Amino acid sequence: MTTEPPPPSEDDPFKKKPQPPPDEGGGSPYDTPPPGDTTPPPYAGDPYGGGPYGNDPLAGMPPLADSGKRILARLIDMVLVGAVVWLVAWGFNVNEYNVDGENIEYGKSFGQSVIAAVLYVAYDTFLTTQTGQTLGKRLLNLRVANLDNGATPSAQTSLVRALVLWVPFAFCCACIWTAIAGGWSFFDKPYKQGIHDKAAKTVVVSTS
Question: Where is the composition biased (Pro residues) (predicted)?
Fold first, then answer.
């Protein structure tokens, strides 16, 4: 019995299709330049080293998503799943209250952090594996795609992406990590990837 995830379905409607050869009039501006042309291709500095991505891994894919919309989609997901986390934590009585005189301070216990990590990672992994879209991304017409072929990420890829995104958020540095992971795509070139995208080799594209 093997634990290897199944390969992406050939029926995936988002998977990039082979491009027509240049002599048929469908050449990409990122094709290998003719002999004597010393102009470097626009993606010669591919941070992944060219490899399986070629000179332009984005060819044939929708445009990259706006970073602001990505942040808004993440906030929607945080609110939706956060409400479930609070209800489950309350049901299992793992909320922590510190009473000091007349002041009652609400804190987050380790048990609540575990619940948050499990629910956020499961939510993100499952929905990304199904369609490439969490509820927040679906509302804002965004989708996660493999950088190399545009297909919906596999379960393994989606899990890696979700772990990098949500485990630090749940256990130690929610506000700081959200700002770093979410803000990274504003400055990343040329693929506008978050840290979690780099770990999983994914991008977020627009579906509208």
Answer: 31-44
Which pair of tokens denotes residue 94? 């793992």
How confident is the model over 140-156, as pLDDT tens digits?
Answer: 999 999 999 899 999 99
Tens of pLDDT, residue by residue over 1-40, are: 555 555 555 667 677 666 555 554 444 444 555 565 555 4
CB neighbour burial string for 58-94, b if at least 16 within 10 angstroms, e if fewer = beebbebbbbebbbbbbebbbeebeeebeeebeeeeb
Residue 175 β-bridge partners: none
Q: How many domains would you assign to the chain?
A: 1
What the block records as the tokens of 87 is 């209800």
> What phi-psi label fits residue 31: left (phi over 0), alpha (psi between -120 and 50 degrees) or beta?
beta
Q: Taking the model in full, what pTM does it have?
A: 0.71
Token pair 């469908």 is found at: 26
202 phi and psi angles, rounded to 5 deg: -125, 165
Residues listed for the chain: 208
19 belongs to a structural domain: no
Q: Coil, strand or helix: which one is 201? A: coil
